[in-house]
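Can anyone check this?
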Amino acid sequence: MSVESGYSQTQHSRGDAVEGLVAFTSALRHAGLGITTDRVAAFLTALDELDVTSRVQTYWAGRLTLCADPDDIGRYDAAFDAWFEPRRRGPSVEVRDERKPPPSQIAALTPEAGGQQGELDEAPTLRVAASASEVLRHRDLAELTRAEREHLRALLALLRVRPPLRPSRRRHPADRGSPDPGRTLRAALRNHGELRELRRRKPGVRARKVVLLIDVSGSMAPYADTLLRFAHVLVRRTTGTEAFTVGTRLTRVTRELRHRDAERALSGAGRAIPDWSGGTRLGEVLRAFTDRWGQRGVARGAVLVIFSDGWERGDPTLLGEQLARLRRLAHRIVWVNPHAGKDGYAPVQGGIVAVLPYLDELLAGHSLATLERLLEVMARA
């Protein structure tokens, strides 16, 4: 059946197709994914805008709406292959579902080749997907289309996060290092007082605190959504990470971003932020952060990351004074400016000029590639 004839199915066939897709979501639930009714509704809504006879479009519609965590992707891929291609590939995971299988027009989904349905060509598809993802990694976040933003959200969920480490007071057994008197003595007692081996130990490591301050003012509006999703990834996958938004007010959004589902986390954070797309008073807000949170331990020894373009409506001198205070508290301060990676950029804004003497790094943050670079800088800290 061609794609054109597929679109001319009767209303009864459309109902069967929807029933088969709902049955597929039930199979994903049995495979271990946290499928909710709102995710099923989002999946069906996405397919209503796409070509349901396209295997590729159906795959990405489900992956972007039904997977809430990177751990879900492997189970989703296995269940998708087992459900939509049972004759060509055996199920790689046990998927129990008592409902009838999907209609033939859904079960035989294959990507179009020259406008016709054809066999799945793995290598070219992978090359095209990899090329598109690589191009998207370097695109400016403010210039992405709606479809590209959906793809970017999936790529953000796949980021590899390595938290910065710091020495721990607790020591651990090791082959090399300083002598461990306690373990050496206990080993000698087990050998009737005979000292046979000198045990050693070395300092351990633990995750260093990370504090994210995200500017949500009007000038940062094109980047704020993606930066909050980036913060959600860090808060979920590291311990001790705190997230705040800054604009005309200071808002702590750590609790909202701890939610496993990214969409619910962003929705909760949006409700908590009262000054979204407002003005900018960085100096006053950073003073409030330092007084209320920084000096009480949140910023002490932490890697402080500030996402802002540096536009300051207030006195830049106040902003510089607050960065000087934070410089005495934090381990490192990294300023991420989305405009820093663009051609012709110069740090001439009053806010940026005031804070430059107190920064360890000034990075660009206008693309996924620059955010990956930020993760590398944080890990080295």
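Reply from J.R.: I decoded it. The mean pLDDT is 81.
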